[in-house]
Amino acid sequence: MTRKPYPTDLIDPEWEYIAPFVGQKSGRGRRRTVDMREIVNAILYMNKTGCQWNMIPHDFPEPGHISYYYYLWQKDGTLDTLLASVRRDVRVSEGRDPEPSAAILDSQSVKIAGNGNDVGFDGNKRIKGRKRHIAVDVLGLLILVWVTRANLSDRDGGAQLCDELHQNAPRVKKVWADSAYSGDLVDYVARWCHFVLEIVKKLPEQKGFQVQPKRWIVERTLAWLNQQRRLSKEYERTPESSESMIKIAAIRLMLRRLTMNTFRVIATAPIF
Questions:
Q1: What are the C-alpha distances in Å from 202 to residues 7, 112, 178?
Q2: d(C-alpha 262, C-alpha 268), whole Å
Q3: What are phi and psi of 208, to 5 degrees?
Q4: CB 3.0-4.6 Å disulfide test: which of 33, 149, 154, 236 passes with 241?
Q5: Which of 152, 148, 175 is closest to 163 using CA atoms?
Q6: 40 and 85 fall within a common domain
Q7: Looking at residues 88-94, what average pLDDT do you find?
Q8: Has residue 232 got a pLDDT over 50?
Q9: DSSP designation for 3
Q10: What is the pLDDT of residues 158-215, one digit of tens each?
């Protein structure tokens, strides 16, 4: 790389982690001529700054190359595989089991910017746009994300997330959520998902804002994600692209956390 670095660029240990996931598969076919590290750097730059495809700085590869790999990794499951891998490794680096046994649910309605597919109106929040339904573990690491029209209820979104948790996170035995997920969903989860959905309610004597047990974890994750300008509003034309941008932001956060944990272990290791 001959250009000046951007703050969003991968450092060497981060690229060494990602490289096997985005490298060219063995076999027949034309060899790649584009620098894959620069492709990833460009996507991270866009995610952080919120710029448009055709506004990506000229010292990155051509926007057509960048968007090609972005949509390829969205469709072939590369982002999902990388998200699951880095989450497991962060958990292990912090002394946890690779797979979570508990999760927290929440949703966030976000205004749409411009035109897009699958847009609705959230009457409670008075927002026209989309709704992001997420599940995180007790460390705040993203497990699942589902983007829908803003008018979809939290209970319907929660049912979808719980079904996917049951299928893809078999160690999960307990899930926390706020009162928007109460009612029939609790019985549905107990019957079909075989874990407990616990509703975290406000204390009867509570006045004003107070941090709710467990719920603050998922709210903190949403705040982390909103630091990426591409996620400050709904800029994506499709919900699938919106989910991909959220996964990229989560991967970036977890990758930096994993690198910091690794450096911390090396720095404190005894020297013989």
A1: 40, 31, 9
A2: 10
A3: 75, -165
A4: 236
A5: 175
A6: no
A7: 96
A8: yes
A9: S
A10: 999 999 999 999 999 999 999 999 999 999 999 999 899 999 987 666 665 566 778 8
At 134, list the tokens: 């997420």
Are the beta carbons of 157 and 165 closer than 8 angstroms? no
Q: Is residue 196 domain-shared with residue 215, that is, in the same domain?
A: yes
For residue 134, give every residue at least 6 positions away whose Cβ sits within 8 Å of its Cβ, in sequence order, or none: 105, 106, 107, 108, 142, 143, 144, 145, 146, 161, 218, 221, 222, 246
Residue 269 — pLDDT band, cuts 50, 70, 90? Answer: very low
The residue type at 238: T
| Strand segments (E) across 94-229 | 102-111, 120-122, 127-136, 142-149, 174-177, 196-199
**Helices marked H in the chain:** 12-22, 36-49, 63-75, 78-93, 154-168, 184-188, 215-226, 239-268
Give yes or no for residue 30 having a pLDDT over 90.
no
* Whether the predicted pLDDT of 272 surpasses 60: no
- Euclidean distance between CA atoms 143 and 218, whole angstroms: 11
Residues found in the chain: 272
CATH number, domain containing residue 177: 3.30.420.10
Host domain of residue 86: 78-203+211-229+238-263
- Angstrom CA distances, 268 to 263, 265, 271, stand at 9, 5, 9
- What's the Cα-to-Cα distance from 158 to each of 106, 221, 247, rounded to whole Å? 8, 17, 18
